[in-house]
Amino acid sequence: MSEAPETLPRPPGESSTHFDSDNPSTKMASNQPNGTTKAFEPHIFDPDFTQNVINATGPKTHPRMRQVISSLIQHVHDFARENEITLEEFFAAVEMMNEAGRMSNSLRNEGQLLWDVVGLETLCDEISHKLVSSATSAPTSSNGLGPFYRPDAPRREMGSSIVHNIPDGDHTLMHGTVTDYRTGEPVENAELDVWHTAPNGLYEHQDPNQVEFNLRGKFTTGKDGRYSFYCLRPTSYPIPVDGPTGKLLEYLDRHPMRPAHIHFIISGKNYKPIVTQLYDRRDKHLKNDVAFAVKENLILDFVPMEDNPKAKFELKYDFRLATFEDAQKYSLVGTTATTASARAEIPH
Known about the structure:
alpha+beta
């Protein structure tokens, strides 16, 4: 493991304490306009600075944009004061984000990967999709999209295989039904978008020996809501460590491993799409996923098969979708079709 850069020395006169318990002018600044949890002398940090930045927001700003950015400015400024972030540390952080941008393209999202390893996507996923319904059955739990999704995967015939030129893998028959979580009725024309890595731990666009869109595909259910296809029993793998995300993991003395999983996006007309992942119970990284994404109710058993020449294992799973109406009725603010439409007005 390489060592993280040492904190650079502060300029003369910039002590990290600045606090005299006998001086009444130095008090804890919590609950002040620009307060933090640290003690500091009032004259060191301009007490009006952060509010002046927030107040610069113009009257035509979208209400959601105003709320989010104002809160972000407040928290980021408080973070900088609390930890006394130096200019050198600030520019190092900017360069880390810049490098993530330079590495990102349609096949790899290094910026998203960087936020994944500090748990932010998983947290936002929980905020966006947690239902507070008292129903005995809930919709399928959401789980992170991840940085390697490709929206243009090919449509495949129901019952076909997404595996190409991997004869020795743990071929698996996956099947189940897509239903309405509240009524239990099958969802016709539901789309299942699925993708996972090869046994070598690489997605096809990372591996020149795999054919285009290997281990990816889209399937559409019939009137009975049923689906079936052949895939592989997934394997755990390390996320790429050749960029700023890998450097951050080194600095934090952390491993880069993700447990074995299969990605899905399940959608249907008038239904709220679900982005999720299903995990293999045998994987040793379930308890220490580098992305902090594993949910207990998404851990499944791959059952050995003996009567199917095409597959060694069977995986049965029923997906449950919520209508936008039910999502609006039971969800937290920020997860419904109405707020999604309003949010679409915000510039991206």
